[in-house]
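Hi V.,

You were right to ask for the full record rather than a summary. Here it is.
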Amino acid sequence: MAGLFAGIGGIETGLRRAAGDQMETVMLCESWTPAQQVLEAHFPDVELQPDVASLSCLPERLDLVAAGFPCTDLSQAGRTAGIRGAQSGLVAHLFDVLRLADQRGDRLPWLLIENVPNMLTLDRGEAMAYLVKELGHLGYRWAYRVVDSRFTGVPQRRRRVLLLASRTEDPRAVLFADDTPGLDESSLRDDAFGFYWTEGRGGLGWARDATPTFKGGSTVGIPSPPAVWLPSSEPGRKIVVPCVEDGEALQGFDRGWTAAADLGRRNGPRWKLVGNAVTVGVAQWVGERILTPGVFDGESIPWIRKGGWPTAAWGDGDAVWKVELTEFPRLEPYTHLLELLDVDNARPLSHRAANGFWSRLQEGNLGRHSGFRADIAEHVEVASTATLPPPPGRE
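Predicted structure:
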């Protein structure tokens, strides 16, 4: 396989876990230096190209190309400039190198694309329309599905679109063969709640027994991790921020995965690297199904574009069919948030951050879960009268 827009190798790591020696990564392409440092640490013998815009060709005889292209212009947390934006528009180079591979007679069996669900609705779904149009020109049948990373057992509510395409294989047998009724919310615990402390007016990203989606940026302009409310903890420790190693684990990586990019400061690049990554278990599921396809026998409903796209669909030529599926193809054993979170190494949310969040929270009607607002107010008071000692180690 080759990985374009490789980030820190989430897709490649997941496929490697699924396929073992059957999957060899022969080329990676990534432009950001900190991400390159991580890739060099974990894929030391793999060719690393520095820029997809200058990539002249793909390696020969590939079985799969993965492209988790930038969501910067597509996500609600980003600029929402759309598929023509400076960053998300880089996906055009993917189709350029695929056409070049065609010209030399090297036809690719599988193409895997990953991005945010907002691409289905932004600009009336223009991003997805562009992708499937390009795939149609190349003769691919395609299928896509929105999935929630919690199906892999990690306590992070992270919704992503997986788009799989092939000329010779049926992508529906990979993406649609598995489905469950979804996560049983009654099985979740009430001892930890994740939320965005950078919000307060328009949203909280509220997540019971989980964190909301990790993001590469935030409304305060920095790649900030969510906070976690621990109702039963002592005052001053009820509102904490996970350490970056927790973030790595919540994305399915080994702890310390991004250490090669550590600059030794709190606002270094590691959280942005983690926030932009693909959850490893999601890619692992795709890899397992590519190796052992299932059977899709569900109903397909002809669909004509009138705006945003459905959460699951497939297409062949100019025709598109909608499919009714949940965002939980499987239900791996769930890791409760406090089973994963290193509470002792999680720093309390600072007074400045907590006070700003509390001010925004009081301007709206959000955060009404029993006890939450009282604990935020308490945390602001405690943090204002005492220096909350950081936990051992650094973020």
